[in-house]
UniProtKB/TrEMBL annotation:
<dbReference type="InterPro" id="IPR002938">
    <property type="entry name" value="FAD-bd"/>
</dbReference>
<dbReference type="InterPro" id="IPR050407">
    <property type="entry name" value="Geranylgeranyl_reductase"/>
</dbReference>
<dbReference type="InterPro" id="IPR036188">
    <property type="entry name" value="FAD/NAD-bd_sf"/>
</dbReference>
<feature type="domain" description="FAD-binding">
    <location>
        <begin position="10"/>
        <end position="327"/>
    </location>
</feature>
<dbReference type="Pfam" id="PF01494">
    <property type="entry name" value="FAD_binding_3"/>
</dbReference>
<protein>
    <submittedName>
        <fullName>Pyridine nucleotide-disulfide oxidoreductase</fullName>
    </submittedName>
</protein>
<dbReference type="GO" id="GO:0071949">
    <property type="term" value="F:FAD binding"/>
</dbReference>
């Protein structure tokens, strides 16, 4: 269909991607009185690869959006166990700690709140491109164009839009921080205290396990694409030959019941630096920069970026600041809050890839109690 014949609809803001960043931004801007469209390629509720441990720092913001914590009775998590690939263990308090909830439930709750607040939600709809033309943004969907004053990209770690825009992290030669894969299961019958998150390391990877709602546990691991390739691209073979070398993972997989027939998996995960604005499209969440999952803080950052973006975008839509000021202010805020954490996350990721270094780090942390707390502080922020 040519753009001339496509159906055109006008909004103040169009947001591509309905994960945490997109949902939070859409609710905030709609509550502020703006006409908002949110486009998500899947239909809620749906599972996605994520460790499902949310840092406590985001609780007040989620409450302000309308998440009814008092009704949900979610497990509070304030202890950490880290095991080395060989199985030695260090335990530490987890400050500020967090809580567990599946993305299946959390994202659907937020999507309902968005609809109740007047967000026009396009589910099961893919954004093909977003372009700036003559002071307006155009968002191309299949057979339809959404026009708006402002466009926001919250399409996660890697999207067809990133490929279309040829963003540098797509086109550059892959380095050590690119090309990871991740796998997730929901489990029942896990021998792990409700208040504890376990981070079990294995060669070139780590596996997080923690409680979510309804007595279930989330097990989610990240490793290199090379590990999967060298196991004939079989997840089961890789788990048997590699992950199970860590006795804690071995015991977990033997004893717990996996409640899905197939695991959920993703590939081409990259932690390379990204820009926060592309051709006047403002980017938030993983689309603007992804912190390594072992920091357990990506969801908080995605939500926080949404909050920062709402503040600046509201000022722009009310005519109080120009588009240039909006982009400048947002980038400055984003860097102030997140740039240091992302850098720290990348450094820690290097350590945790190598079995010898991980073993060494676990040994040091076991002897010097302040080390784990120090690393947690480098990757977490204040309540917002
Ligand atoms: C293995 C792993 C474990 C993790 N564990 C944790 C953890 O325990 N705690 C934590 O805080 N963080 C964790 N994270 C990080 C966390 O999942 C992300 O940082 C967070 O989900 C980012 O939110 P987002 O809104 O930016 O992106 P997402 O939640 O990924 O949402 C992006 C959305 O955009 C949609 N989309 C993409 N392209 C298009 C398109 N063209 N059109 C329409 N829609 C589109 C997608 O379908 C998706 O719904 C983990 C990440 C990984 C990889």
């Amino acid at each position: 269909m040519s753009p001339a014949s496509a159906h055109i609809t006008d909004y103040d803001v169009v947001i591509a991607g309905g994960g945490l960043a997109g949902l939070a931004t859409s609710i905030g801007l709609s509550k502020a009185g703006h006409k908002v469209a949110l486009v998500e390629k899947y239909t809620y509720p749906f599972h996605r690869v994520c460790g499902e441990y949310i840092s406590e720092e985001s609780r007040p913001f989620l409450e302000s959006l309308g998440i009814p914590f008092h009704k949900l009775q979610l497990p509070r998590i304030n202890k950490l166990i880290v095991s080395s690939p060989g199985g030695s263990v260090v335990r530490s308090p987890l400050i500020p700690g967090g809580f567990g909830i599946s993305r299946f439930r959390l994202d659907a709750l937020l999507a309902n709140i968005a609809k109740e607040n007047g967000v026009h939600l396009f589910e099961g709809t893919k954004v093909i491109d977003m372009v700036y033309h003559d002071g307006k943004m155009k968002c191309f969907l299949q057979g339809r164009i959404l026009e708006s004053k402002l466009a926001i990209g919250c399409f996660g770690k890697r999207s067809n839009v990133d490929v279309k825009w040829k963003r540098p992290f797509i086109t550059h030669r892959p380095g050590k921080l690119d090309n990871y894969i991740a796998v997730k299961y929901h489990l029942r019958g896990v021998d792990l205290d409700e208040d504890t998150i376990a981070l079990h390391n294995f060669s070139n990877g780590y596996c997080g396990v923690s409680r979510i709602e309804d007595g279930l546990y989330c097990m989610c691991y990240l490793t290199t694409a090379g590990n999967l390739r060298s196991n004939d691209n079989s997840i089961l073979q890789m788990e048997n030959r590699l992950l199970r070398k860590n006795p804690h993972i071995d015991r977990l997989l033997d004893r717990a019941e996996i409640i899905w027939d197939e695991p959920l998996s993703i590939s081409q995960v990259s932690f390379s630096a990204k820009s926060q604005v592309h051709d006047h499209v403002l980017l938030a969440g993983d689309a603007a920069g992804m912190i390594t999952p072992l920091c357990g803080n990506g969801m908080s950052m995605a939500l926080h970026a949404g909050k920062l973006l709402c503040h600046e975008a509201d000022a722009f839509l009310r005519g109080e600041i120009s588009r240039d000021e909006l982009e400048h202010n947002y980038c400055r805020q984003w860097n102030r809050h997140f740039a240091k954490r992302l850098r720290a996350g990348r450094v820690i990721q290097y350590f945790f890839g190598d079995p010898k270094l991980t073993g060494l780090l676990v040994g040091i942390a076991a002897r010097i109690p302040g080390v784990t707390g120090f690393l947690i502080r480098q990757t977490h922020g204040e309540k917002y």
